[in-house]
User: What shape does this take?
Amino acid sequence: MNHLKDELRVRYQNAVAALTAVLTGTSTLTGAADANHLCRKRLKAMAIRAPKIAPDGRPFGYRVCVPWGTYCAAEPQHTPTMPRRAGPHAMSVMLRCQPKIAEWVEAYRHPLPPGPPPKSFGRLHDKVVAELKRLDLSQYYPLNTDDQGRRALLRYLRRQRIEVEGYDVTDVLSDEPTAPSSLWDAFRGHIFDRTEFDEHRIDVEAVMGVALPNGGIAKKKITMLWLLAEAEVESRAIVSWLLRVGRASNNHDVADCLARGLQPWQRRELTIPGLEYAPGAGMPAGLPGIAGALRSRCVAMDNAKSHHALDLEQAFCRAHDGVLLLGRPHQPRSRPVVEQLFSRLEQGALRMIAGGFEPATRLGDDKVSISGFSPEDHPVQLHLLEELVDVIVANYNATPHPALGSLSPLQYLQMRSQKLGWSYTPADRELGAREMGSVLIPVTIKGNYKDKVMPHVNYLYVKYRSAELDNRWELVGKPLYARIYRNDLRTMVLYQTATKPVGVLRAAAPWAHTRHDETTRKLVHQWSKQPGGLKLVGVECAIQAYMAFLRANATSSQQAVDQLARLQQQHPTLQVPPQKPMALMDTEIRAPRRGWVSLDRKRFR
Assistant: This one.
């Protein structure tokens, strides 16, 4: 039912009601067909076929109510002969006459999404045609047709899958529990049994204003805007979301998005005039009682490279728990709820942003502008766009959904949470969200007693020190463990064993001044390795120097524009240091924080 459109779902429900009335004897064929707006001929065929055994060994049942493929009559029982022309069941008769080809077709298990068939189907069809030519059957069907039975074979495979993989009458009328036959069967029927996660490229051509070092403003186009979202299947509620800029997202962004669904949600202090939350707007994590503490037992996503990262899997198993279900590539039908969610958000709100457009649906066509506002006249600011998206998502959760009748997703969750016999809730939601954004890594203590190099730890091109490591020469060269919080790399927690911490280590200057995540540090390191790139020698704050460098190169580098937009999203109030050096008497003199300090080899002028 989840993969059906709304209008097809209504037709399916009418067919189920009519078939139930006929099979139970509460109505005649004509009466049931008229009451449910159904064709009497179709209802009769459904009633005849429903009790019969399907190829999977079970009755067809309510699978005959699917709005396509219900007029299939019974196949002939006499000894088959190779058909000479196309006709009803010609493909089925041909397969009965050629058991070897029938085995190939039966063994074909590749997905067949709507639209052009995949290359694997083309190889199967070529194999079938080659076998029929080898048997000298060129005068018979399907070799005597224009496409040599390609379209008929594709239709046959899709019809067989609909018949085998659809709903069964025993699942609806039987009181006995049915053993799950797939992972999806084990996680459905209750709220938060399954959530779906995906990344979506927003259909907006955004432009941002870059403040240049000379005081001017340059308008530069942003490459892509990505919306990462996790949606609950039963209620269609958006559990968490994240806005990112760039060519793609990484595993850190995925972990950050999942972590947002674990921590309690609160309304933002909106700064955009006229922007406000609707009555009852919010997120599932902001609901009172047990409804706000529930977490998903199964998170379904595609098999993108970032989803296979060990850092993501480690954090998920430690902080989130549950099943991480990685689907097949390019199969959006395996995650229909989140795909439909993105479509609703695009058509209802996101394309109304300045620069919003509708992508072309045919090859050679141009995209169609939707918003009517020029992106050059309305430059985007990422932290303000986050405010807008937060209001859009919160208001969506408070809007009645067609699949829920007159209920909104949040109302549905509150109603269903009161009937839960067993709930999957964390002991500490804040701690779980924080742990979701952390990793536990092995580190080796560096140092040299002879050269008086105090024990320290190197991580991501930066040295970490602490007073707890002073004169701990016995730790040099030994492998320990460190917990890194990926959203703030200014500190790390060092462990000698799993339950024995050594202390908190702090990053050396200039990385200890401003909060930054691991993606930012990697990008800074990449710029510093390029000829004529970023120089960190003598700077007070690496992040401020990084922002100043991006502004200086934004006019000539698209990467600098995207990274500057990302940095301004994280630090909207961060100030760029002055370009000219300050006078010595105006410079603030800072004392060392702690630890061993040496003034040897220092030169003063």
